[in-house]
Amino acid sequence: MRPYFKFLLFFGLIISSTAAINAQTLIVDKANDNYSENFDVPVSVDSIKFNSFQIKLSTSDPSLVIDQVVLNKKISKGTLKFSSTGSIYTIDYSNPDPIAIAKKEKLFDLKLNTTNRFSEKKLIVINDSKFYNNANVLSVSETVKPSTVNQFVLFKNDAIVFGLLMLALGFVFYTESKKGGFWPKFYKYIPGLLMCYMIPAIFNSLGLISADVSETYYIASRYLLPASLVLLTISIDLKAVFNLGWKALVMFFTGTIGIIIGGPIAILIISTFSPETVGGAGFDAVWRGLATLAGSWIGGGANQAAMLEIYGFNQELYGGMVLVDIVVANIWMAVLLLGIGKREKIDNWLKADNTAINELQKKVQNFSEKITRIPTLTDLLIILTFAFVAVGIAHYGADVISTYLSNNFEAVSNPRSALSSFGSQFFWLISIATLIGILLSFTPAKNYEGAGASKIGSIFIYILVATIGMKMDLGKIFENPGLILIGLVWMTIHAVLLIVIAKLIRAPYFFLAVGSQANVGGAASAPVVAAAFHPSLATVGALLAVFGYVVGTYGALLCAELMRIVAVG
């Protein structure tokens, strides 16, 4: 080859490589609201330096209308012109100073509205896009992501949603109280608590209600849950709780170990027949996403967020992992609730020693019977005063403590830190509410158990159960079967280990269920499962769940590294 040909080839390679490096992507992201007629569509671009652009868009359907363009704050000082001619929308932007974007960043939001419903459809069509750095035209590729918008939900008003949830609870309690006919046979096999969970799930799956557009779960978990913990703890015999012994902790840590080893084993099993399901490279690697599940299933939301930060999983794929978390964790909770109806048979098979649990229940029951009275209006108001003043104190304390720790300790404020859970307001909310309930149990306030304190607390718990059920969409079980299968295998390993250890140490089903849920469900659902056995046991679930927050990130880190070794080698 002649020298000048070599030079031209070399020069051409440099140009093509430079072009490839500088080739940027204009990204029309998913709509940010799946349920409204009015929604925003973010438009982003990855690393680029420009001072002007012109983008011509159209919508994929005449019912989709772009009303407005809102610039990102970073580029808001420039000049924006937004116009439409027929079905074509033109966005012109210019700035005398070049704008450098180091990584993917939003340029603007498109504000749209529609009267139709769209499911996983590309809403925007990019007809033309030109970016300029002064007189230089930049090469920009284009990507449009499908969105679901204006999805059908019949009832979006929270008052109606709450009414439906109460209707479901009332139906379950009424039918469960029937002494003859079909219902006693039905509830012999299906616990009422499970029905309180499943009926709202059916409502959600049918599109009658949706947790995505309702604040009822937030209200129940942030207000009614801490209130219930106070009322269910107000008459607790703390010494008797500690007398439950070492088996409770053993089952909790068994659940933790089950999650830690379950992840890598699940990857190994699935990889034997579907390697692509557990594959992916770089920040798209599936094991990175599964690390966030480990954080959630050992600790809670804060631990999950920490794992997302630490391992940098592609956030565009993160929704799939959230789906697995919701579906698998809710299926497992349903299984645990189903087991509560058969706990005597399970305990007999486990040859479990229920002495300490029965003694605690008996103590609380005897105390309650001794002080039981017909509650007056004053009694009920004072009970609610204890509950919601404690909730107020817990919220105030949670805000102050979490803010102080986050502002003064980098280990807490850094989402990558294993101690980031201590910056979670929910962590402190549950901890403080439980502590207040325990402190009240040493005062005459415990006598209000005789006026029905634990019964009111149980009502709050059942409302929480209904709102948790509302988050479950039964149809989504089949949306991403590969990832769901990984989650199910993972949870099966967790369950098998719990059963084996419970059998070996003769631990009651109560310890198995609560030890598992303190890991997988966290503080929002562990007290629910515990209270399903007996209201006096809710404190055990809360205390173990709080402990789960502490160890969550450490356990998840170990699990993630094991999954990385298995997946990457």
UniProtKB/TrEMBL annotation:
<feature type="transmembrane region" description="Helical">
    <location>
        <begin position="509"/>
        <end position="533"/>
    </location>
</feature>
<feature type="transmembrane region" description="Helical">
    <location>
        <begin position="154"/>
        <end position="174"/>
    </location>
</feature>
<feature type="transmembrane region" description="Helical">
    <location>
        <begin position="249"/>
        <end position="270"/>
    </location>
</feature>
<feature type="transmembrane region" description="Helical">
    <location>
        <begin position="186"/>
        <end position="203"/>
    </location>
</feature>
<dbReference type="Pfam" id="PF05684">
    <property type="entry name" value="DUF819"/>
</dbReference>
<feature type="transmembrane region" description="Helical">
    <location>
        <begin position="482"/>
        <end position="502"/>
    </location>
</feature>
<keyword id="KW-0472">Membrane</keyword>
<feature type="transmembrane region" description="Helical">
    <location>
        <begin position="380"/>
        <end position="398"/>
    </location>
</feature>
<keyword id="KW-0732">Signal</keyword>
<dbReference type="InterPro" id="IPR008537">
    <property type="entry name" value="DUF819"/>
</dbReference>
<protein>
    <submittedName>
        <fullName>DUF819 family protein</fullName>
    </submittedName>
</protein>
<feature type="transmembrane region" description="Helical">
    <location>
        <begin position="317"/>
        <end position="341"/>
    </location>
</feature>
<feature type="transmembrane region" description="Helical">
    <location>
        <begin position="418"/>
        <end position="440"/>
    </location>
</feature>
<keyword id="KW-0812">Transmembrane</keyword>
<feature type="transmembrane region" description="Helical">
    <location>
        <begin position="223"/>
        <end position="242"/>
    </location>
</feature>
<keyword id="KW-1133">Transmembrane helix</keyword>
<feature type="signal peptide">
    <location>
        <begin position="1"/>
        <end position="22"/>
    </location>
</feature>
<feature type="transmembrane region" description="Helical">
    <location>
        <begin position="539"/>
        <end position="560"/>
    </location>
</feature>
<feature type="transmembrane region" description="Helical">
    <location>
        <begin position="452"/>
        <end position="470"/>
    </location>
</feature>
